[in-house]
């Protein structure tokens, strides 16, 4: 009878140790891998300031132009923020086919309208695709430096 008691005890202890080890392993992975967001997202994020590659000095020129012609009332600080882009969207809506909300968000529709402006007068030769790539940014610099 004695070996049978030891066998049952050994099996019971092994089961308890196995369950405990499994619980710890699961707890370890739960803490090691928290819920995370993907590194790449298809959503457009809203930036407080989006100079599209302009320097502070170049952005100040754009803000001066926006103040003179498009109702910009903010500071001439070289930071193209929401109010700067709202003023720019008013221009883009009137002349360059922008048909979205005047919200100050530099999304694809804002960029497309800006690209139409830049293509007509500032040497932009790329596609009207809503992506502010190197060609868009270079043409936007030419626009800024002319004002």
Description:
By secondary structure, the chain is an all-alpha fold. The chain has five helices and no strands. It has helices at 2-32, 56-69, 82-95, 108-121, 134-145. Helix 3 (82-95) packs across helix 4.
Fold topology:
Blueprint: H1 2-32, H2 56-69, H3 82-95, H4 108-121, H5 134-145
Helix pairs in contact: 2-5, 3-4, 4-5
Q: Report the uncertain regions.
A: 23-33, 37-45
Structural class: mainly alpha
Task: Count the E strands.
Answer: 0
Rg, alpha carbons: 30 Å
Protein traits:
single chain, mainly alpha, 0% strand
Summarize the structure.
58% of the residues lie in helices and 0% in strands. With 147 residues, the protein is mostly helical.
């Amino acid at each position: 009878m004695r070996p049978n008691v030891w066998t049952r005890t050994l099996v019971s202890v092994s089961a308890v140790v196995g369950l405990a080890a499994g619980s710890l392993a699961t707890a370890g992975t739960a803490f090691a891998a928290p819920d995370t967001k993907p590194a790449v997202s298809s959503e457009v994020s809203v930036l407080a300031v989006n100079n599209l590659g302009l320097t502070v000095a170049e952005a100040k020129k754009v803000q001066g132009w926006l103040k003179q012609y498009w109702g910009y009332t903010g500071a001439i600080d070289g930071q193209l923020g929401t109010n700067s882009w709202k003023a720019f969207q008013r221009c883009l809506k009137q002349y360059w086919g922008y048909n979205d909300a005047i919200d100050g968000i530099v999304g694809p529709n804002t960029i497309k309208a800006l690209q139409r402006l830049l293509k007509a007068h500032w040497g932009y030769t790329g596609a009207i695709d809503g992506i502010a790539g190197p060609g868009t940014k270079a043409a936007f610099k030419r626009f800024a430096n002319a004002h």
